[in-house]
Amino acid sequence: MKLYDFKMAPNPQRVNMFLAEKGIEIPTVEINTRERAQFTESFKAVNPISQVPVLELDDGTRISESMAICRYIEDLHPDPALFGGDAKEKALIEMWSRRAEFMGYLSAADMLRNSAPVFEDRGLPGVPGGVPQIAELVERGRNSMARFFALFDDRLGTARFVAGDAFSVADITTFVTVRFAARVEVEPPADCANIARWLGEVESRPSATAV
Amino acid sequence: MKLYDFKMAPNPQRVNMFLAEKGIEIPTVEINTRERAQFTESFKAVNPISQVPVLELDDGTRISESMAICRYIEDLHPDPALFGGDAKEKALIEMWSRRAEFMGYLSAADMLRNSAPVFEDRGLPGVPGGVPQIAELVERGRNSMARFFALFDDRLGTARFVAGDAFSVADITTFVTVRFAARVEVEPPADCANIARWLGEVESRPSATAV
Question: Are strands A62-64 and A2-5 parallel, antiparallel or unpaired?
Fold first, then answer.
């Protein structure tokens, strides 16, 4: 196996933190998307939509999308279970992962991609011809982040981890989202004591260095 | 079990088509989001982010997010497997489902929510105070839909179904996306013969009436 990676980008970081939790190392090929390496013909043969990460199996199969890669790893190395044990646990982890992605991660991405000069004409990822930035998405993203923090602070007031008693892939997506948002200077509000407690706990895990 | 549903909305339709493929019926409670029924206090107790569908279990647990609900159903009723059998199949189904969601479904949603008069001040779902429409998202969405159709037509030239030889949840999300896009008058381009072949096949399944 081989992982097409870009260690400073948040989606690859989700996979890298997941691998660290599993105690697994996979050889990587760094694709520097800041330098447009995802748009070369050779990488488009790996992923036609020019995004990292991609896991390449020994039979040549290429799996893109961070969560598809993590699920594949979970099937091969079930312990510790990061997608849950029984049906209900698995469903709640999926629910919280998706809330973190849709309310949090995508909002932070909207803010960064539609404001940062380095993303000029790159309002969406993976489009070689470019996508104009839309300034109004910055404010919309900021408001979504506020709702995300409120929901997750409330949740973390009644649960140790995002999806329940055990650390899971939902914590990984939430943690990467919090760090990602910090790049556009959006931090959890000062009154989110539960997020602060949880952040301290997640930051103390050795896997946090992947993010 | 009980499903909070809204049969004309695309996310509930994914769950309903999934249930039809499994041959399962669950009692439903219709939450008319056109009439803002998702913002009542009683429904906010069911889902704090005011979105349907939600599956309520007999022990009171509430599972929101369409894919979390479908995965729960799959665990309870594994046949026919719609999330795949072995690790590689499962990973490829997850990959194609997510490509359909991020390139297709979210683009169609952007187009509809940021243009239709009925969604005025509802640019994002689940926000009681409202979210202003952003007109530029319509054009961005249209361009993303064109890339979605090109990628999926290419894919369906080499595979019978979206994720391979077998019908899967990736076909459900793709089918709902194509129907959803038609609401904003975006149709697969005439030269997408593979999508047309696949659409005919999916439309002939009894489960298609859920969409």
Answer: unpaired
Kindly report the average pLDDT of chain A as a whole number. Answer: 97
Closest residue in chain A to residue B89, using alpha carbons only: A72
Distance (Å) from the C-alpha of residue A210 to the closest C-alpha of chain B?
23
Query: pTM for the complete prediction?
Result: 0.97
Nearest chain B residue to A98 by CA: give it.
B65
Burial pattern A114-129, b for ≥16 Cβ within 10 A else e, equals bbeeebeebbbbbbee
The answer to whether the CB atoms of A87 and B65 lie below 8 A apart is no
Q: What CATH number should be reported for the domain holding residue B181?
A: 1.20.1050.10
Nearest to B12 by CA among B75, B55, B41, B47: B55
The predicted structure's pLDDT at residue B191: 97
Q: How far apart are CA B84 and CA B167, in angstroms?
A: 9
Do both A147 and A57 map to the same domain?
no
pLDDT in tens, A58-85: 999 999 999 999 999 999 999 999 999 9
Select the residue of B68, B99, B134 nearest A65 (Cβ to Cβ). Answer: B99
Does residue A32 sit in the same domain as residue A110?
no
CATH number of the CATH domain containing B51: 3.40.30.10
Contact A88 B154 (CB under 8 A): no
Interface pTM, i.e. ipTM: 0.97
Say how many domains are in chain B: 2
Which residue range is the domain that position A145 belongs to?
87-210
Calculate mean pLDDT across residues A15-19.
Answer: 98
Report the length, in residues, of chain B. 211
Question: Would you place residue A45 in the very low, low, confident or very high pLDDT band (cuts 50, 70, 90)?
Answer: very high
